[in-house]
Design a protein that fits this description.
Layout: E1 5-12, H1 14-19, H2 24-48, H3 53-56, E2 57-59, H4 65-69, E3 78-83, H5 87-116, H6 121-131, E4 133-140, H7 145-160, H8 189-194, H9 197-204, H10 214-221, H11 233-237, H12 239-242, H13 250-262, H14 299-317, E5 325-334, H15 336-341, H16 346-369, E6 373-378, E7 381-386, H17 388-405, E8 411-412, E9 419-420, E10 423-432, H18 437-452, E11 459-464, E12 472-477, H19 481-493, H20 501-512, H21 521-537, H22 549-561, H23 566-586, H24 596-599
Parallel strand pairs: 10-11
Antiparallel strand pairs: 1-3, 1-4, 2-3, 5-7, 5-10, 6-7, 8-9, 11-12
Length: 601
């Protein structure tokens, strides 16, 4: 048929592929799997259109097939394409290819597991097949491309709310998966009675309390590219200490690791990270946490291992213990829907797609430069794990890079005189390294939503969840909020303000402020005077001197200029204090405090 059709494809479900996770590997592999299936869809679209890459694909927009197939090129779960063939024929061909690719990946993983352990493979295969969510829509592509695209997007929105709910083909009286509780475990119960903890991990990649369905088993055993390329949450949390190791500590490292080997630590606990530390080697930072050693030892051997760890920490870090928190960064582009709507032709939309792909390929080097681990980067969407003390600087670098990449796509706003361009809003969640990863991911998503709610966007939000105390989230526009937070961090790092300042300000807020009710001008004046009074009677951390008049004045200027509530100021100081603790742990020497101009943004 000669008529040209615009097609939109959706591959999912995103939440189950990526977000249902208990371990870093679940998250890392799930994101790769979704991209890999989307790549298979894009390749089949190209094949159906006679191999013409540039004509076939609108989003993504690779230059050629080799770029699409490269490991560095990620494809989002939404594809926009055009075709001259029957859309029904194209849709069915793409669906068949995506399912075939999913089966290729799962067959390879399940075959390896089957060689060493028993499991219900038939149920696992049915669960994986049933997981796939594949929708497509089409409409005639007219000369008015924006109108055709809007029509196709409207059809996709309608299609996604019209779903089939087939009966389960595998349900039975067995345990539910620990990842999401949706599907039944395919690991026999006898395995948990008959195998040791080490055997369970070697054969199934499960802890004793875990149960895995076919999808979970695929996440634990599926191979991605040349091998695993991610850090554990504990390794990321331990990074501030690991940064302090130098060649003088090599002997202490060898002695500690040697002691663990002599005590019979599982071989799976050593040499597990993808990139070697110059001194700590391929060993995971989880070995620096006393509580993680309970996973490898018990009884007298555990006591000996913990004693060896304490001796190692004393020798290398003067007894400092690793920071128990890490950061999850979740970023998303602002105004992208409106930006796409302003692209008047397929050629311009492809140019935007290519620029988004260019940004995505810059993300991994940026994240790695800040000692982090990238989970996913597709267009304007980023998910990564980072050390707490590096997270905000990394987020700022990503936001600046995105803004530069998208600078050619600015457009006039609704009023016509305001120029709008795509920017990047970032949510950062600071969580304990042993917190369930699914809960940590949810907090990161909430922080990203908070950032996207800031007027005009182009924002950062930081959420803190400690094992003791209430959850706190603060945020604001780039260039203002991040500079303010950085100034607070450096004040704490230099011991210029006392650690209990945030606590006293929070108590003041509870007495005088009413949540949801903005204070009137008279109350604002009272609050500011109280802040000044508290600072005037406080002494710096350690009590060696009064808080300087310069710093008190800077505080008052910030509170007034930025119109901060006392509650928000207290929450920002609380989060800044955690950031400062991680920074001081990584570099115990003092850092300079920025000028008031810098602090005020």
């Amino acid at each position: 048929m000669d008529a040209v059709h615009l097609m939109v494809f959706h591959i999912g479900p995103v939440q189950e592929f990526i977000m249902s996770a208990r371990r870093s590997r679940d998250l890392w592999f799930g994101s790769w799997l979704l991209s890999e299936l989307s790549k298979a869809a894009a390749e089949e679209i190209i094949r159906q259109n006679g191999g013409d890459v540039e004509w076939s694909l609108v989003f993504p927009a690779p230059q050629d097939l080799s770029e699409l197939q490269s490991e560095e090129f990620n494809v989002a779960n939404r594809i926009i394409a055009r075709t001259r063939k029957d859309p029904t024929e194209i849709g069915e061909a793409v669906r068949t290819r995506v399912l075939a690719r999913l089966r290729e990946i799962s067959d390879e993983a399940f075959s390896r597991v089957e060689k060493v352990a028993n499991f219900d493979r038939s149920a696992a295969e049915l669960q994986v097949d049933d997981l796939l969510e594949f929708f497509w829509v089409s409409c005639p592509l007219k000369d008015d491309y924006p109108r055709s695209r809007r029509r196709a997007e409207s059809l996709m929105a309608a299609r996604k709310v019209t779903r089939d709910f087939p009966a389960s083909k595998w349900a039975g009286p067995v345990d539910k998966s620990s990842l999401d509780g949706l599907r039944e475990s395919v690991i026999p119960r006898d395995a948990y009675r008959e195998m040791s903890d080490e055997e369970l991990w070697k054969k199934y990649r499960v802890a004793r309390g875990e149960r895995l369905c076919g999808v979970g088993l695929l996440k634990r055993h599926g191979r991605r590219g040349q091998g695993d390329d991610f850090f554990s949450t504990s390794h990321i949390a331990a990074m501030p200490l690991l940064e302090r190791l130098n060649t003088e500590h090599r002997g202490a490292v060898d002695k500690y690791i040697g002691t663990l080997r002599d005590l019979g630590i599982s071989s799976d606990a050593l040499d597990t990270v993808p990139k070697a530390h110059s001194v700590f080697g391929y060993n995971d930072g989880h070995l620096l946490f006393s509580e993680r050693l309970t996973e490898f030892f018990s009884g007298e051997r555990l006591e000996q291992a913990q004693e060896a760890l304490q001796n190692f920490l004393e020798e290398c870090f003067d007894g400092d213990r690793p920071f128990p928190y890490y950061a999850i960064l979740h970023a998303d582009g602002d105004h992208m829907g409106t930006t796409i709507a302003h692209q008047e032709s397929i050629e311009k939309h492809r140019a935007l797609s290519r620029r988004a792909s260019s940004f995505a390929q810059k993300v991994n080097p940026i994240v790695e430069s800040f000692k982090g681990s990238l989970i996913y980067a597709g267009g304007d969407d980023v998910l990564a794990l980072l050390p707490v003390h590096r997270a905000i600087e990394c987020a700022l670098t990503l936001a600046d890079t995105f803004r530069q990449q998208m600078s050619d796509f600015a457009f006039s706003g609704a009023e016509g005189d305001l120029l709008v361009q795509p920017t990047l809003s970032v949510g950062i969640a600071i969580v304990h390294h042993l917190e369930p990863l699914s809960d940590a991911l949810q907090l990161a998503r909430e922080a990203e939503v908070y950032a996207k709610s800031v007027k005009g966007k182009n924002a950062l939000a930081v959420a803190l969840r400690k094992r003791s105390g209430s959850e706190k989230t603060v945020g604001g526009t780039w260039g203002v909020f991040d500079w303010r937070l950085e100034w607070f961090v450096k004040l704490y790092s230099n011991d210029e303000i006392p650690s209990r300042l945030a606590y006293e300000l929070r108590a003041l807020a509870l007495m005088l402020e009413h949540p949801g009710e903005p204070p009137d001008d008279s109350l604002k004046q009272v609050l500011r005077q109280e802040v000044k009074r508290i600072l005037n009677r406080k002494r710096t951390e350690g009590g060696s001197r009064d808080v300087s008049e310069h710093i008190i004045q800077e505080f008052m200027d910030i509170v007034s200029k930025h119109d901060l509530s006392i509650r928000q100021l207290a929450d920002e100081l609380t989060i800044a204090q955690e950031l400062a603790l991680a920074s001081k742990l990584a570099a115990p020497s003092k850092q300079g405090v920025p000028s008031g101009k810098e602090a005020n943004g």
